[in-house]
Write a structure and sequence with these properties.
mainly alpha, elongated, single chain
Length: 61
């Protein structure tokens, strides 16, 4: 049950963060060649955040 909720939350959260990253790239007029690096960095950091949340919830329950 916990894993299902965590996965659903994670997918929604990652999608929202990517939408905000896209808006940032558009508003700051970041060149196309730099955008993949920004997306990769943001997605890796968010994935680490989500994994640490899951570990915290899993081991505290």
């Amino acid at each position: 049950m916990v894993i299902t909720v965590t996965i659903l939350f994670s997918l929604f959260y990652l999608f929202q963060i990517n939408k905000m990253t896209f808006a940032l790239c558009q508003s700051k007029e970041i060149p196309e060649e730099k955008q993949p690096k920004i997306y990769r960095t943001v997605n890796i950091l968010i994935t680490i955040l989500i994994l640490s949340l899951y570990v915290e919830v899993f081991f505290s329950a």
